[in-house]
Structure prediction request, 376 residues.
Amino acid sequence: MDLDKKITYVTRPIVPSINDFIPLVEELFASGQLTNKGKNHELLEIKLKALLKASNCLLFNNGTSALLCALKAFDFPIGSEIITTPWTFAATPHCISWNGFSPVFCDIEKNTFCIDSSKIENMITKRTRAILGVHVYGFPCNVIEIERIAKKYNLKVIYDAAHAFTTEINGKGIGTYGDISMFSFHATKLFNTLEGGALTYNDGSLQKKVNNLRNFGICSEESVEDVGINGKMNELQAIVGLLNLKLIDEEKRKRKILKEFYDKSFSNVKGIRIPKMPQNTSHSYQYYTIIVEDEFPCSRDKIYDNLKNKNIFARKYFFPMCADYECYKDLPSSRPENLPVANDIKDRILCLPFYGDLDVTTANRIIKIIEKLKNE
Ligand SMILES: Cc1ncc(COP(=O)(O)O)c(C=O)c1O
Prediction:
């Protein structure tokens, strides 16, 4: 096969075998209960709670509805300010806005690309109610410092852990930090339920509220207490989740090998920086990112275009960044002078194809294409 014709995307979802899937679907169809907390849903919730080492875990039909409910759970007044990062997927600031709050963008750290906790305190006003950090690419936010600030100013801490499935800090599940954390099980994520998500939290008193919010606010047959939405995961999603859970360890093992291969190859390429996980933190192996520094003779965009010309689709993740979106660019916090690191990184970062079944030939080609540009 002509290698240049082979299409390679940045990721590829794990999927269960059809032979395992069909009998469960047959059983599901015979049962007649397709959604509303069926038996697969209940089982997946229990298994994920254990895997994520969480005190509480509730499933959702996607990460966005989960994050919408997380932000809604604290009854912040309309117009509240939520300090967050511009370095994330659109869903993060949009969930803030859909709740009637204002996102306030804080700059990011150069090494982890997470919100820079040393810049948060300066941004707190009378209207600030929460900090919404994103463990981007699976790198953890500075959870200790964020907790200190939140306690000092009486703020809630919400984490978008969409990229951080099974990441741990000092052996503790990442979803146990802060007041509430959201996971996404979208097809592009390490673990997927086709579409799906979950919230984890320590405080059991949130259970009733979050449970109501994901089910239209309905709390019993004859009472509706909250303005909720339909956030329920269905049984087909849960079946895929239960089967995919069995594949996670193997997928992570393969991604670890691929990461080591990339790391070793790029260690000799001057001007390509590989971000490192902080100590005592385990990896989610969600993305493989490189930073194209000034010493590299060509730009990130040239690398991207060269790969694309060979049908290898890396991602300029996140480009455009949230603070540059039409709907957020006029916010005072979006001004480039307030976000120097994010504005620098946005032209340098590239996510390379990264998934368990990426073959060695393709990984080698990617490295060779980049190495060749070093000499141009
Ligand atoms: C950082 C981040 N937050 C939120 C989401 C939204 O999750 P979902 O697609 O499951 O709604 C995604 C991705 O999909 C994401 O990457």
User: Anything to note?
Assistant: Residues 271 and 294 are 6 Å apart (CA to CA).
